[in-house]
Amino acid sequence: MSYQLSSIKETLQATVSSFGRLLLIGSAAFGIASYANFGHHKSYWNGTIERVQTVDFNMLSHMLPTKLSQALIAGDTQEIQRTLDSNYGLFGLVVTDCTSSQSDCSQNVQYMSDSKLPWRKLLSDDTLSTSAYDVLRDPPPMYPTGSYADSRDPIRNSTGLVNTGRIIGRVYYVRGVPPSFFAAYSKWISAWPASFGSDSGTNRYYSLTTGLFGIGGLSAWMFMEMGFAKRRKHIVQLSQQKERLALAQSALIEEAQDLRQQLQERLTENVQLIKEQSRNLVKLEAAQKKYQAQESGLRASLQILQERLNAQEQRREEEKQQQIDLQTAIDHQSRAAELLKREIADLKTQDLEGERSRQQTEEKMAGLRKEQETKQKLLDKNTTELNQVRLALSLTNEERDEGAKLAEILRQQIEESKLQQANASTEHQESQKLLRQIEGEKEEGQQHIKALETKLRDEKKQGDQLKAFVDGLSKSSLNLFEKKIVKELNTTTRVQSAAWSLLDQFDVSSRSRRTASMFTDCIVIGDSFIAIIEAKNYSGKIYAEGDTSNSVWLSLDHQKHSMEIASCWGNNPYKQVHTYVSGAMQLFRDNSSFLSKNIVKEIALYGVVVFPDNADLSALDTHLGAHYRITQLGDLVDVLHDLERQARQHPSRTKLSVADVENCLYGRKSLKPLRRSAA
């Protein structure tokens, strides 16, 4: 609704400006045409008409003296008057009683042409003395005594011809007096449009010249309007481009915010992941250290077991060598026993040989038995030792198998530790790779954010420049009616004595709640009140469709054409000025943080809607509550005085200086501490 009202207001302003330019160009064209018509007027009366009269005088000088002389001789006064009136009084034909042949003559006018033209009123002896004349004779003259060499020749020359007879009078040829240009032009204008098609006299030249310059002015106006229309179209295109840029900027901002939020979430997740990976890495490093310690312990145990296995293997080899030695000794003893058995057999065989040999043999056998018992004991001992060795060897093999199994288990644990260490190293490498990837994504995201922020700043800068350009094109200065209001207020004693201060084109939009600019036409600042004035340059009858506060306002001209009164905020000027007053109050609160709140609440703000003096406000309620007025320009100062008296009648009203209020509106913080004073 606000955009439509703004568009309607701009259209009305453009239409008013167009009609203003048309009026200006039309006035200039009319002025130039009038100057040209002045030349046509002079050329017509001082050129064409004067030459025509010269021709008429030249013809009359050949005929009129004879005719008038005959009529005078005959005493036919009626014929004389009819003859003199035959020129319709456009110029003067005057008959006098002069009977002298000299130029200077004491004479009286006997007859003259009947006319209401200026020459008749201006006729005098001086006029006759400068006019051409012919002498009337008895008998009537036959020859012309004077003639004009050319129609452009203003001097009448003598023909040299001589008439005889008694002089009975003179006939004077008095030229017509041309009307003034102002009189003729005013007469032509007053008879318009009927005079526009007239082809008589100078009217034809006036119409032709004015028409040509009017067409030229209209063509120039149309050409200018085409240029202004193109410029307005360009402004609209710039405004639309500004809106598109604003939308694109908003979209970029939203996209950047979404991307920033996504990156922030991604960074948060990555930070959590990094923390988790760091914790896992610490655990892996602790496990790795634990596995390394276990590996070192297992390696030490394996080394000890390997040393024990080597010692057992060496002991086993020694026992094998000892077993071989014992087996060799047993085999040697077995061979020795066989030898003894063979020897016994031989001895038994030789028993038959002699007693001595048997005794020797028995002694030898006893020795051999003793030796055999000794050897048997030794063999039993060796067998026992061999069994012990075999048992020891058997136990050693079991220990070796257990050691081998333990070594295998240790090797498996070492392999598992190495595998876990390798897995931990792989996971560590993957974690490092993931960290590097996350850092890369983070850096890429930051670069993208920086690029978006740079682009956003460029778009914002371009949008601000365009906005400034469009605002510079669209923002208008004070119009004529607003200037008239400011001029009227500047002539008041309150303003001249600095009791009131005036601000124009002041933005009252709140800095804390700003959505759009709100430039006021005029603000009147007093020591106890602020009045915001909204100028509406509409004439005719001003009325509302319904109640004054909430309905649309219309203006009705003398032709019964109604027009909606434009308003930047709301559907009528009351709502517009109400919005300005609310904005000023909020602005006052925002800028007066250094004042006590009870003082701020006591400042009186009023809104006044002003129409021209030719506006009829009888159909409106001119008092809208205690703080809003509708008035004409002629009553504006009285309304402001009433509002000031109303503000001062409040018992707890705070009286500030004009500078304090103005500084507070501007947000200047150079105010001195304020004190209450009686209003």
Automatic annotation (TrEMBL):
Keyword set, alphabetical order: Coiled coil, Membrane, Transmembrane, Transmembrane helix
Protein name: NERD domain-containing protein
Any Pfam family hit: NERD
Transmembrane segments: 205-224
Coiled coil (residue ranges): 407-462
Region (Disordered) location: 351-381
Residue ranges of every copy of the NERD domain listed in the record: 481-612
UniProt xrefs under InterPro entries: NERD
